[in-house]
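Form 7-S
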Amino acid sequence: MLFAGPPGVGKTATAHAFARDLFGDRYIDDGHFLEINASDERGIQTIREKVKMFARQIPMGGYGFKILFLDESDQLTDDAQHAFRRVMEQFSTTCRFILAANYSNRIIEPIQSRCAVFRFRPLVKADVIKFLKRIADGEELEVDDQALEVIYDFSEGDMRKAINILQASASISKKIDEKTVYRVMGYVSRGEIRKILELALSGKFSEARDEVRRLLYVQGILPSDIISAIYRELFYLDLSEEDKLELLDLLGEIDYRISEGATPEVQLMAFLARIAAKGRR
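Output:
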């Protein structure tokens, strides 16, 4: 079988659950299951020695076959993949193979054609939030619904990343809200950016400038993160589509200037000045 999909969606966990269901709780200790991470051992020597040695051994305990799980299999070199394809042919009677890959297109076609391909998708929001609530209850954390929404947005369906964000947030406070998550991630919240844009749009340029300075010099937010946040909020401003297009074009230019070494504060002020001019008009 070939498990293909983005990281943190359960490919490795599914392989272990499958083996445990088939062989019982001692599936590893009994020698029925072997896991190899190809990102650590990616050369042809691993295939010739470790993989071949395990695959050729006759399974014990009345089972018809053993399972070899090759994680991060897309990291195998081409020579190693061709050698692995031959092992799959030779020892299919004594061993079954599960390959996990983040990028299935990096697996050679002869291996893909020998596998049943299972494509994993990013986890849906309801499942991620349900599991995070289960962790929060077990750890006695108070996490509000908005914080869970933000954690999911940052994780993009990666459960491992979502758990890490929750753990990092819990290291700051047992009561986790939206601001705590943004603080942990080092990002500026949508509300703060919306406030800056609306201040500029209503002609309160000095107040908008002070807010940008606070983000840059007090909170230490990266200019690139501020620009990304502005990009997300720009579409919700009370402006015509033509004005939004013009501001998006300017935002791209400012992003390029900052990456080339321009002063971030000056460039961001120039963008806010353009918004203020449009608000006045």
